[in-house]
């Protein structure tokens, strides 16, 4: 018998494999496998680089001085019954808590809205800092927060709409606590909480934008990565349609992103086209740090900036004090703290004209000069450093270290004489045009790049730096650099054409600076992802330089790197909001020590860095690419013929045209790996899956394991009863659960098919009594084996299609399971998806979805062409302005396709 079995397996291995696959196909596939392995490996390395390659978190932790407590604010009874999972709380510390328990509120209301699966306790950092700061002011802020029971608002539109309506009721309840003294609140939203904040004002019934004075969004995804149901898609579309009402009401909106460290909500998603300020934490003055998705809530540097902007936005003269209703004054405060911060911690309003001190000392400065007080001479009067303008230059850069007086930069007309010098009596104040720079020694550093042709004041001759006697108590360094802009700007347009740059190999130094220079600019032409910088000084043992990466599409997305003699690179900087915008150009702004010369080597980022940027911004396209390819495979199996090669060619051309070639290749690899995983699971985990199903039945109907096993075997033979049981789950629970159960049952069906197939192979030799009879039946056995293997392969493709189509069902099931104790039925389920789940579950459990044998008839050809066209339509969705908004369409499309395949299977062919 063993000899018979060995002979049979040898015949099956040699005959079946060679007949299923020609030598030519083996050679083609063999040559493509290494290519796809390389692409997959590169993608894996890109993912690893994306989730690990960012700067260390250097934010300071925000601590509470007293124990934080949360006082529950009750809404109306009907609202409490309608939203039992949610809650409104007031934040308090120490003695203040008792005041809140008596429902006594006298401050300015601020409502914090947590994000996806967030906690109401996340408000404590901002609220605690605000309470401490209020001791210096005659007014304070009352912080409220909402508990959402950590629902999945980022993945499930039903929950998002529930939260939106609940927040609108909370806003009204908060304002009612002040008995008419307050008519609006400040909204601070983290992650999806920022979307809910805008939605509560615009989409909730009986609400309008005037209920808020300003909105501060922290890492909010204004463009989502995953839109897995139509409710979520419609929510975003409706929100986009009504956003203009926020501007019309004078509400100021600030959107803050975390930058490279936030891998959950990348910077491009935090960009809100209707916001008054879009900024990354890396470019906020005094912060200059990237924050991850959670640390953006407790980063001390950022929290202090937010709180200061709130206090500076208050109209003190009003009784009681409240956020100013003047949009310009609000914008002045927000811009000062999030964009400019030219002076101290508080908002400082500059006087346009200032009269200079009569007894001041005047010093004329050359075009390139470094002034300092090394000698430590103290003065009782001010010193004015004057540099002549419009003298062989069109730009002036001034870099001042440790200069802290609030009014320090002016332009003037030197019309008065003081001895041999021309001096000014008064000047126009330009201090509000200066900006802060980070410093490696943490010294106050202020700078300006003054474009001379933009000076609108008449008869201007000099730029003046004012130094007060208090400034002279510290060591000052003030660098002046006058130059022609075209002499200081470099471009990478022609430098990166060499092949070695295309692959990220290091090349020779590109830029050599001139001694005395403070400022250089480099335009990064044709670089939209990553750039690597190396900066060395051959003539200075100790030096430092500051490199800022600027993106033209968003002035608030600046990133900064500091180079020193001990840390001179190479350092990689990744564009945050520029990827996919080839018409925009990033640039580098370099601040140097004028005593040193530098060799600056700038080159494109390495291939792994480029891939990581592509993954960051385009990974949501993979889902639609996978679904497109699966439908293509099904179409080929339905009608395999001479049109297969043109189909492949058209798909490749479309992927190039829609710029998703790489994503399509990775999608193909995902399908291949998934197929291998399913096959291994069927072979090695089939009995485990069967055991899980048996134990579940035993627990559900209180049967023994043996009876449950018999019952499951009986259900396998009666698919109609199985279908009835699965469909009965849908009206009592949710359609998504029925879909996932049907996928599991489909997997059990594959395991049974494999067991029957294996049993047929092993038992075949025993069914023959002599070699002659076996020789005669060889051909029929081969045909039977080929038919069974083809059927398993066809069902494998359908199972993969079912499995990927079921991915949007996972959030619904999670929400249903989380809220099961409140309601067995998921009433907020998307009706379009619920219908799709019902169709897919019914067809899958009935076993009527089959890819028929390769009929060459007109009907099979028509169905195949419909599926191919659908596949290409899905591929075209990846090129839409917001492709993630079409992800929810995959289950309805799959349900329609499965219906057509089912009809093709059950209707007899003529």
Walk me through what this model shows.
- This protein has 27 helices and 32 strands.
- The relative contact order is 0.08.
- It is globular, with a radius of gyration of 34 Å.
- Helix content is 44%, strand content 18%.
- The model is unreliable at 1-24, 500-507 and 768-776 (pLDDT under 50).
- The strands form 7 sheets. An 8-stranded mixed sheet has the order 1-2-4-3-5-6-7-8, with helices on both faces. It has a 6-stranded mixed sheet with strand order 11-19-16-22-14-12, with no helix packed on it.
- α10 (267-270) links the parallel β7 and β8.
- It starts with a helix and ends with a helix.
- It has 5 domains: 1-52, no CATH class; 68-340, Alpha/Beta hydrolase fold, catalytic domain (Rossmann fold), CATH 3.40.50.1820; 353-483, Sandwich (Jelly Rolls); 487-616, Jelly Rolls (Sandwich), CATH 2.60.120; 620-903, no CATH class.
- With 910 residues, it is of the alpha+beta class.
Describe this structure in a few short sentences.
The chain is an alpha+beta fold and 910 residues long.
Key words describing this protein structure:
disordered N terminus, 32 strands, Jelly Rolls, alpha+beta, 910 residues, 44% helix, Rossmann fold, six-stranded mixed sheet, globular, eight-stranded mixed sheet
Q: Which runs of at least 5 residues are low in confidence (pLDDT < 50)?
A: 1-24, 500-507, 768-776
**Number of domain units:** 5
Number of strands: 32
Which whole number gives the mean pLDDT? 86
Q: How is the main sheet built?
A: 8 strands, mixed
Helix content: 40-55%
Strand content bin: 15-25%
Question: Strand pairing plus helix content: what structural class?
Answer: alpha+beta
Total helices: the number is 27
Please list the strands of the largest sheet in the order they lie side by side.
1-2-4-3-5-6-7-8
- Choose one word for the global shape: globular
Q: Using only CA atoms, what is the Rg?
A: 34 Å
- Separation of the first and last Cα atoms: 45 Å
């Amino acid at each position: 018998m063993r000899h018979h079995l060995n002979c049979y397996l040898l015949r099956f291995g040699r005959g079946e494999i060679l007949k299923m696959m020609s030598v030519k196909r083996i050679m083609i596939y063999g040559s493509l496998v290494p290519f796809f392995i390389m692409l997959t490996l590169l993608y894996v390395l890109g993912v690893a680089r994306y989730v690990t390659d960012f700067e260390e978190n250097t934010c300071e932790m925000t601590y509470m001085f007293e124990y934080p407590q949360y006082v529950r604010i009750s809404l109306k009874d009907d609202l409490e019954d309608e939203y039992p999972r949610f809650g409104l709380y007031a934040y308090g510390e120490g003695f203040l808590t008792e005041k809140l328990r008596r429902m006594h509120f006298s401050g300015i209301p601020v409502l914090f809205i947590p994000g996806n699966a967030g906690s109401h306790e996340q408000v404590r950092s901002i609220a605690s800092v605000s309470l401490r700061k209020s001791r210096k002011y005659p007014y304070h802020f009352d912080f409220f927060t909402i508990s959402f029971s950590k629902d999945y608002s980022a993945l499930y539109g039903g929950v998002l709409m529930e939260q939106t309506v609940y927040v609108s009721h909370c806003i009204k309840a908060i304002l009612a606590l002040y008995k008419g003294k307050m008519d609006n609140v400040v909204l601070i939203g983290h992650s999806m909480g920022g979307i809910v904040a805008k939605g509560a004002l615009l989409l909730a019934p009986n609400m309008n934008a005037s209920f808020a004075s300003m909105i501060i969004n922290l890492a909010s995804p204004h463009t989502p990565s995953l839109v897995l149901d139509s409710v979520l898609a419609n929510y975003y579309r409706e929100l986009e349609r009504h956003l203009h009402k926020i501007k019309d009401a004078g509400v100021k909106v600030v959107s803050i992103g975390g930058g490279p460290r936030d891998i959950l909500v990348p910077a491009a998603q935090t960009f809100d086209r209707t916001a008054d300020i879009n900024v990354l934490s890396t470019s906020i003055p005094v912060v200059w740090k990237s924050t991850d998705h959670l640390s953006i809530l407790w980063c001390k540097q950022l929290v202090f900036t937010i709180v200061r902007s709130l206090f500076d936005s208050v109209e003190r003269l009003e009784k009681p004090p409240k956020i100013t209703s003047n949009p310009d004054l609000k914008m002045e405060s927000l811009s000062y703290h999030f964009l400019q911060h030219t002076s101290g911690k508080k908002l400082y309003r500059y006087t346009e004209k200032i009269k200079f001190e009569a007894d001041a000392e005047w010093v004329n400065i050359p075009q390139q000069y470094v002034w300092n007080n090394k000698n430590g001479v103290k003065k009782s009067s001010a010193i004015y450093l004057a540099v002549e303008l419009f003298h062989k230059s069109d730009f002036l850069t001034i870099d001042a270290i440790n200069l802290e007086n609030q009014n320090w930069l002016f332009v003037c007309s030197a019309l008065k004489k003081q001895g041999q010098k021309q001096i000014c009596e008064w000047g126009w104040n330009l201090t509000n045009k200066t900006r802060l720079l980070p410093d490696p020694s943490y010294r106050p550093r202020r700078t300006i790049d003054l474009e001379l042709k933009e000076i609108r004041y008449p008869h201007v001759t000099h730029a003046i730096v004012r130094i007060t006697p208090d400034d002279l108590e510290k060591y000052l360094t003030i660098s002046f650099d006058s130059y022609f802009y075209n002499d200081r700007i470099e471009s990478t347009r022609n430098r990166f054409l060499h092949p070695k740059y295309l692959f990220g190999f290091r090349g020779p130094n590109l830029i050599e600076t001139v001694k005395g220079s403070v400022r250089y600019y480099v335009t990064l032409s044709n670089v939209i992802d990553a750039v690597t910088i190396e900066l060395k000084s051959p003539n200075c043992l100790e030096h430092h330089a500051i490199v800022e990466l600027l993106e033209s599409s968003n002035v608030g997305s600046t990133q900064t790197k500091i180079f020193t003699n001990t840390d001179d690179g190479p350092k990689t900087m990744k564009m945050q909001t520029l990827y996919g915008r080839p018409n925009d150009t990033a640039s580098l702004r370099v601040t140097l020590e004028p005593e040193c010369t530098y060799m600056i080597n700038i080159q494109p980022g390495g291939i792994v860095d480029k891939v990581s940027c592509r993954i960051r911004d385009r990974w949501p396209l993979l889902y639609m690419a996978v679904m497109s390819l699966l439908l293509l495979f099904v179409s080929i199996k339905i009608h395999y013929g001479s049109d297969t090669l043109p189909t492949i060619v058209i798909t490749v051309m479309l992927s190039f045209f829609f710029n998703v070639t790489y994503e399509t290749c990775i999608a193909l690899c995902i399908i291949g790996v998934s197929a291998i995983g399913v096959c291994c699971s069927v072979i090695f985990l089939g009995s485990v899956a069967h055991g899980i199903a048996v134990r579940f039945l035993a627990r559900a109907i209180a049967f023994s394991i043996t009876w449950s096993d018999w019952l499951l075997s009986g259900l396998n033979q009666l698919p109609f009863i199985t279908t009835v049981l699965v469909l009965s789950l849908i009206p009592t629970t949710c359609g998504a659960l029925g879909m996932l159960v049907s996928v599991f049952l489909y997997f059990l069906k594959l395991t049974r098919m494999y067991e029957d197939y294996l049993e047929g192979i092993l038992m075949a030799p025993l069914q023959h009594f002599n070699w002659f009879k076996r020789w005669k039946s060889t051909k029929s056995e081969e045909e039977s084996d080929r038919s069974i293997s083809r059927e398993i392969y066809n069902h494998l493709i359908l199972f993969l299609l079912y499995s990927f189509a079921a991915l949007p069902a996972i959030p619904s099931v999670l929400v249903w399971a989380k809220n099961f104790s409140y309601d067995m039925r998921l009433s907020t389920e998307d009706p379009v998806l619920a219908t799709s789940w019902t169709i897919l579950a019914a067809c899958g459990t009935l076993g009527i979805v089959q890819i028929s044998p390769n009929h060459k008839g007109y009907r099979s050809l028509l169905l195949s062409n419909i599926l191919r066209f659908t596949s290409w339509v899905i591929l075209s969705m990846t090129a839409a302005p917001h492709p993630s908004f079409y992800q929810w369409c995959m289950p309805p499309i799959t349900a329609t396709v499965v219906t057509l395949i089912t009809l093709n299977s059950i209707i007899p062919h003529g």
